[in-house]
Amino acid sequence: MRVHICAVGRLRAGPERDLIDDYLARFDRTGRGLRLGPATVSEVEDRKGGGMAAEADLLRRALPRGGLICALDERGQTMTSPDFAARLARARDDGISDMAFVIGGADGMDRGLRAEADLALSFGRMVWPHILIRVMLAEQLYRAATILAGGPYHRA
Questions:
Q1: Which of 9, 47, 71, 105 could form a disulfide with 117 if both were Cys (CB 3.0 to 4.6 A apart)?
Q2: Does residue 91 lie within any of the structural domains?
Q3: Any idea what the CATH number is for the domain that residue 98 is in?
Q4: Which domain range does residue 83 map to?
């Protein structure tokens, strides 16, 4: 199952980008034998200042057709890392070929796009900068793959 991260904003070189690249490379290596990955990142940017609605239109164009859509949103469901791993495995085993994680911009995600998602996931009740959400998602994808592979990375 291919994994897509569709996010508002262009991430420049720096420590956050390095972490994301590292975790996604680890996810790709670990997930390959599990039929998970590769992971790709699609970045969109509303240069015309159209707000969340314009960002949502750009994100919709970046989404894979027919894929499962997971919105990263503070109002979403919280889950443990093993539950997240099980959710990925269930989608894969159900024959889902693409799963897209959608991350809104600094002002959040358009309500309409959020409503279109198959799942809304939260990394807690606090609001996180969208750049850190990318890092946290990349790490959780890698962690999920190691859980499914029976590796020692996740210690619960």
A1: 71
A2: yes
A3: 3.40.1280.10
A4: 2-149
For 24-36, how does the pLDDT look when each residue is reduced to its tens digit (9 = 90+)? 999 999 999 999 9
Q: How many domains does the chain contain in total? A: 1
Domain annotation covers residue 71: yes
Query: What's the CA gap between 1 and 34, in Å, rounded?
Result: 9
Q: Residue ranges of the alpha helices (H) in the chain? A: 15-32, 51-62, 81-93, 111-116, 130-149
- Specify the amino acid at residue 140: Q
Q: Which residue from 133, 116, 112 is spatially nearest to 70, judged by alpha carbons? A: 116
Nearest Cα to Cα of residue 57 among 19, 110, 3: 110
For the chain, what's the residue count?
Answer: 156
156 within a domain of the structure (yes/no): no
Per residue in 48-106, pLDDT (tens digit) is 888 999 999 999 999 999 999 999 999 999 999 999 999 999 999 999 999 999 999 98
Q: What is the pLDDT of residue 46?
A: 84
Strands 39-44 and 119-121: unpaired
In angstroms, how far apart are the furthest CA atoms of the chain? 47
Q: How far apart are the first and last CA of the chain?
A: 26
pLDDT in tens, 123-155: 998 888 889 999 999 999 999 999 999 998 988
